[in-house]
Specification:
six-stranded mixed sheet, Alpha-Beta Plaits, alpha/beta, about 300 residues
């Protein structure tokens, strides 16, 4: 049986002019999936998310959450999810805990122990005044509010902005715990490591257009491998550079090369390398960041060709 899609974005367009907005984008987030929305600041991530939440009316296309139209039924949708906004704006005239309690009251939460546990988890002292809190402390407040009512759907826009590395790690661990509960999570970010650790699938957005979707497992199990080799002598380095291989770097000054190999060719490669005096060989992991940068560069080359035609 096909897994139900909880979030649907169909041919969504909102054009603000000057290449700002989103343009005919479509993607779905399945039930129980952690979906990453990856791109630089200004790429259109937040615009898409605000449409999903029903904050913005589409110019064309539509978005749905749990089968409900985002623009037509925003109140019903809000009851189902937890949300961390990309830009946090809290009232200054209260403490963090008072604000948490106020949101809990709006959600008819009688038991505040989940909020207390989350505060402890993120090492947050919520009794301080919001106006005196750092960016990181306010981000923790936002996370507590998003998770405390145990929502089935989480929409997180740059959720670790302002957090230190230790708290970023704790956030990733929390996402893993929520994944095991079967939660559906859409998370926008421009942090490769965070997305790679937490997400099942990723959409890459550039200038308001989705240019690629990929499963994280496909990156981890890529059939091409990159190796860096440093030779003991310049002569060997020069000779090796004449071999019929796919070189990604040649650095004669450092007697070093990088080559890309298909899995099926690796044994053949290691037989070849025995003919040379090697100082070291190391595998270079293929990461989401490498995929992203490679894809962006390919897109830029394609755009340049279109412009020149």
């Amino acid at each position: 049986m096909e897994i139900q899609s909880i979030i649907k974005v169909n041919n969504l367009t909102k054009d603000y002019g000057n290449n700002r907005g989103v343009f005919d984008i479509s993607f779905e987030v399945k039930k129980g999936e952690v979906f990453g929305f990856l791109g630089p600041n200004g790429a259109g991530k937040t615009t898409a998310i605000r449409h999903i939440l029903g904050f913005i009316k589409p110019q064309s296309g539509k978005t749905e959450v749990a089968g409900m139209d985002s623009w037509e039924q925003p109140c019903e949708i809000q009851k189902l999810l937890g949300y961390v906004p990309g830009e946090i704006a809290f009232p200054n005239n209260m403490t963090g805990w008072k604000f948490i309690k106020q949101i809990a009251d709006m959600r008819n939460m009688k038991d505040l122990s989940p909020a207390e546990k989350l505060c402890k988890y993120f090492e947050l002292e919520p009794k301080a005044e919001l106006k005196r809190m750092s960016k990181g402390m306010k981000q923790k407040i936002a996370l507590v509010i998003a998770f405390m009512h145990d929502p089935e759907i989480l929409i997180l826009d740059e959720p670790t902005s302002g957090l230190d590395p230790l708290m970023q790690t704790k956030f990733c661990e929390l996402i893993e715990m929520e994944r095991k509960k079967g939660k559906t999570i859409l998370m926008s970010s421009h942090m490769f490591d965070e997305v790679e650790k937490t997400c099942d699938r990723v959409a890459i957005i550039k200038q308001g257009k989705i240019i690629s979707e990929i499963k994280i497992k496909d990156i981890e199990h890529k059939t091409e491998k990159e190796f860096e080799i440093r030779f003991k002598t310049k002569e060997d380095a020069k000779k090796f550079m004449q071999e019929d291989l796919q070189f990604t770097e040649k650095n004669i000054a450092k007697n070093r090369v990088k080559v890309m190999l298909l899995d099926a060719k690796i044994n053949e490669f290691f037989k070849l390398i025995t003919n040379y005096e090697v100082e070291y060989i190391r595998g270079i992991p293929f990461t989401l960041e490498k995929y992203f940068m490679k894809f962006y560069k390919e897109e830029e080359k394609s755009d340049d060709k279109k412009t020149s035609i």
